[in-house]
Automatic annotation (TrEMBL):
Required for the formation of a threonylcarbamoyl group on adenosine at position 37 (t(6)A37) in tRNAs that read codons beginning with adenine. The keyword Nucleotidyltransferase applies. This is Threonylcarbamoyl-AMP synthase. It is found in: Cytoplasm. Its EC number is 2.7.7.87. It is an enzyme of class 2 (transferase). InterPro entries: DHBP_synth_RibB-like_a/b_dom, Sua5-like_dom, Sua5/YwlC_C, Sua5_C, T(6)A37_SUA5, TC-AMP_synthase_SUA5. It catalyses: L-threonine + hydrogencarbonate + ATP = L-threonylcarbamoyladenylate + diphosphate + H2O.
Length: 306
């Protein structure tokens, strides 16, 4: 906040600059054929945390990872025959496939919100394709708008809610579809429609609301052990996740940096679950900026399980 946002027309120079920013761990707004995305290196947890910071998202929803082709997609996710057929028919294009994560995927757990699945898309827009090639990284990208605001279909829409919060907007004019991609899950031998969009997928059954619909945080990873919030010290049977002055067994950020804490959150929860103590306690996290999203996720992790 407070910095100025550059808006530059799509071309080779701006792609080189955008790739430099991505390598430095910063998010960049880039047009796709659906809506403008706010893209960052999906293998860099702190870069992904900066997406949430810029959007002011109050919770960590899993993000779509953009890759150049099906071969790159297969390094991140496992495609069954139905998923592969959809990819062959519609990629590059406005279709996102949710598939099980592959071994050795390298994607930051903040991108998948700790889920065992990943949403992947091969975009068609030349600007996003050029940035994928120039950065050489899978790019996590939600729509480039502040949380709760309308999805951007023009560069000026991005500025309307993110001006001063990001370094660069690549201007590619109005997007072709103006509507987010269709999302289909292929995780269990069936095809489920998670979000309707520009592509109609025959044979995809609408997802049952409350079970797998996008953004339904109940379906997200929660530790198997009870979790206590705002703990300044641990009982003998508790594994303490620290922050700032509370060291704990494993700190989200010894210096109290919320970007670092967000980047480490899901990995820390996995480690705490595996640590062998009966319960988990978490140090107080300030309830401002990214701390709101961290506390939202922790509150859900601490809520009674179904
Ligand atoms: O057209 C689009 O898809 C745009 C452009 C930029 O690619 N992106 C976009 O991202 O709409 P976003 O973050 O606004 O929406 C991502 C959706 C969310 O509803 C999220 O819940 C869902 O994808 N999602 C991501 N990973 C998932 C997963 N593993 N399982 C279920 N849903 C997932
Ligand atoms: Mg969105």
């Amino acid at each position: 906040p407070g910095k100025s946002t550059e808006i530059r027309p799509f071309g080779p120079d701006v792609i080189a600059e955008a790739a430099r920013l991505v390598s430095a761990g910063l998010p960049v707004a880039v047009p796709t054929e659906t809506v403008y995305g706010l893209a960052a290196d999906a293998t860099n947890a702190e870069a992904v945390a900066r997406i949430y910071e810029a959007k002011g998202r109050p919770s960590f929803n899993p993000l779509i990872v953009h890759v150049p082709d099906l071969a790159a997609a297969k390094r991140l996710g496992r495609f069954d025959a139905a998923a592969e057929a959809l990819a062959a028919a519609h990629w590059p294009g406005p279709l996102t496939l949710v598939v099980p994560l592959a071994e050795g995927h390298g994607i930051a757990s903040l991108v998948t919100a700790g889920l065992p699945t990943i949403a992947i898309r091969v975009p068609a827009h030349p600007a996003m394709r050029a940035l994928l090639e120039a950065s050489g990284r899978p790019l996590a990208a939600p729509s480039a708008n502040a949380s709760g605001r309308i999805s951007p279909t023009r560069a000026t829409h991005v500025l309307a809610s993110l001006d001063g919060r990001i370094a660069l907007v690549i201007d590619g004019g109005a997007t072709a579809h103006g509507l987010e991609s269709t999302i289909v899950a292929a995780t269990d031998g069936t095809l489920r429609l998670l979000r309707p969009g520009p592509i109609a997928v025959a044979g995809a059954v609408p997802a049952t609301k409350g079970i797998e619909a996008p953004g339904m945080m109940e379906s997200h990873y929660a530790p198997s052990r009870p979790l206590r919030l705002d703990a300044t010290s641990a009982a003998p049977d508790e594994w303490l996740i620290g922050f700032g002055p509370v060291g704990g067994d494993d700190s989200l950020s010894p210096s109290g940096d919320l970007v670092e804490a967000a980047a480490r959150l899901f990995d820390s929860l996995h480690r705490a679950d595996a640590a062998g103590r009966d319960k988990i306690a978490v140090a107080p996290i300030p309830r401002d900026g990214l701390g709101l999203a961290i506390n939202d996720r922790l509150a859900r992790a601490a809520a009674p399980r179904p």
